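Regression test attached.
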Amino acid sequence: ELKVEQNPLFLSMQEGKNYTIYCNYSTTSDRLYWYRQDPGKSLESLFVLLSNGAVKQEGRLMASLDTKARLSTLHITAAVHDLSATYFCAVDKAIGDNDMRFGAGTRLTVKP
Amino acid sequence: DAGITQSPRHKVTETGTPVTLRCHQTENHRYMYWYRQDPGHGLRLIHYSYGVKDTDKGEVSDGYSVSRSKTEDFLLTLESATSSQTSVYFCAILIRGTATDTQYFGPGTRLTVL
C-alpha cells in the first residue's frame, strides 16, 4: 500500500527563522507535488518535482527531491507570517499514473 | 482558479438522503477528479474520469458514484448519505504542461450529513 508521510504535522515558528518539512513516500513514482492550502480555501499548486536531485525555488520556499531515498523536503527560509498555511505533498501512485496520493499535511504557523 | 466551479458550495442534509455534487470546468480538460478532505487524512481520491463516460474508482470509492455525460461536468452522487460522509469535497482537473501535468483544484463543497 502506498504511504505518504509528512512531518512534522504541526509547526509553529517565529518570523525570520528557517525550517524544513519532510515528505517520505513508498512508491517508485517519478513525480512529487507540493500544494499550499489556506484555511477554508482550496489547494494551490506550489511545485512539481520530476527527477532525482530536482530543486525548485519560489520566494522563501525551496523544494527538493531525492528519489533514491524517496524523500522530498520543503525548506522555508526566513519565515514571514504570510507563509502560515497547511502544506501538502503528494505523489503519483505509480509511474505515469495521474492518481495522486496525499500526505496528511503540515500546518505551519508563523508567529511575529 | 483554472476555470473550475463546484456547486453547491455548502450543503446540510440528513442521513439516508441522496446528494449530488457538481463540478464544472470551462476548458475541456480530459481528466477530472473528486477528492474528500478530512482532518488528519489530507485529500483522498474518491473517483476520477479520463473522458466522457470513462470513470474509475479511487482510494475511497465505497458509497459514492460518479457520472460524466459531458466533458465539462463531473457529478459525484451519494446515493444514501451517511454521517461518515460529512467532509469537504474537492474537484480537480488535470492540466497538461510542456514539462509535466498538474492537478488544479476547485473551491470545494462543504457537506454536512446529520
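Expected vs. actual: identical. The two ends of chain A are 41 Å apart (CA to CA).
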